[in-house]
Structure prediction request, 609 residues.
Amino acid sequence: MKLLVVDDEALARERLISIVNELDDNYDIVGEAKNGQQAIEKILALQPDVVLLDIKMPGMNGIEVAQHLIKHETSPAIIFTTAYEEHALAAFDAHAIAYLLKPIQSDQLERSLQTASHLQQGQLKKLSEDVKNKRQHISVKLRGDLQLIPITDVRYFRADQKYIEMRHSTGMALIDEALKSLEEEFSEEFIRVHRNAIVAIDYVTGIERDSLGRSYVLLNGGEDKLDVSRRHVAVLRRLLKSRG
Amino acid sequence: MKRIKIKASAQFSAPAPLDGLFLPDLCNIRILLLVIVIAEMLAFILTLAGASSGQRWQDLGLISLFVQWVALFSVLSLCLMRPWLANFNNTLAGVISFILINVITLVLSEIAFSYIAYPGLDQSTAGHIDFLLRNLGISIIVSLLTLRYFFLQYQSSKSMLAENTSRIEALQSRIRPHFLFNSMNVIASLTRSNPKLAEQAIVNLSQIFRASLSDIKKQISLHEEISICKSYLQIETLRLGERLQVDWQIESGVEGDMIPALLLQPLIENAVIHGIEPLTEGGVILISAQHKMDKQTLELEVINPCDNLKDENKSTEKGNKIALNNIKQRLDAIYKGESSIVISQKNNQHTVTINIPINLLVGAG
Prediction:
């Protein structure tokens, strides 16, 4: 069984590796990663069966890593590790998601490895809601690869039939998510302008009205222009006004 | 007459409902039992106080019957009405309960008067009114006492709860579970690979906890405080590796100043947790101590990088504030307005500056 160890602390990785090496020979550590981005790269490259994933990491935390991976066809089983997470643990229990408390005990690790199973998207979604985890990236599948777009680069999400069109600083991508849940997750950064679209508040530069009375929101000085439905105009104007 | 369900909750402390209503859980069987016992005692008192002699047993029977009626009806109605009463504030709920109990008394008195032929009872209109008013009078007094008692009981249990919560918080702020478990994890790892370093980490950890658990009013020299901070930073360096860099700028001549124990360490801990840990590449914490020009003031400063873009989650912010408030309160208590603590944030740098009067003479507490 191929294992990948992910933790931002070198000593924590070291200890996990030495514990695993003392278990029987079935377990083979194929690599380690010290942050979320690296974890995703290594998982895609090394295709481990199980990932021991630290929750608290700088940049992208463990829960977000799992959220991006789960959409991938060959996602590994995940066992979270954590030193002390007060409220989060109840949520893990509630959704039957495997986790180990650090310092990790050898026999518990072995038991978890034996029963490690793949996370279900629903489980993870509920967990993430319960612990109010907010992704910092949106993952995009690109020719079998996983590309991560920082949420701060995203200008808008627009529903287009089956998919969501995501416009970001360097291009456009189609993602398979629900506009409603994106709106809820990023309610602080994004605002709804239309039944089919939410836009990044930071990129909004103005509102424009054409001769037919239709309103448009301008993003990034007019580089992007989206319809605004009548009932969202007022909220948008208030927002612009409050920003001066 | 009256019911006195109250005392019940005091003696048999039934689990207090969590809806914020001051009444105890009157649906609780133990409380009901106690109400019956206490109502019976009231019946005894009324019988003993009664004027008629020769037929006390008969009196007791009738009075008991009546008092039990009132008590049980009151308890039952309040029990059933609880979910509804919980919608009101306690004053309003109290007034409603009061009116309810007395209405029950009046109604039952009227029924009793009409259907029970009590020998010594004056059956005239005046006698009727007198009977109702006497019962109502007793009921008003007893229900007021009872409700007041419930309220006091509720308040004291509430303040006890608040006190316990704040004690736990105070204890946690001293033990700092995150730090403890992280350190244990580091030590567990080191005991395999580097026992000497593990030993050092344990010694450092003991020093920190000894300081944390000592009297918070204690004053120590800046030199000692710095030594505690260095122990702390050594442990965090084991954990965070190169991500954690520290730049000490301690002016010569300041290390003998006395300061409240653990003034600097929590600031540095905040800097590590909220400044360094969220950064993938880490950063530098700048710690400085110097005398101000006037030679009256010691200035301590901790500067850490911070990433404004992702303001992490609100919970870390909260933890940060708790530590700072705690320090502020301690400074106010010790220096009575002669100290200051200033927090500023710009250019992705978070700065905490503390000014306290230089005091070489305040001995260790």
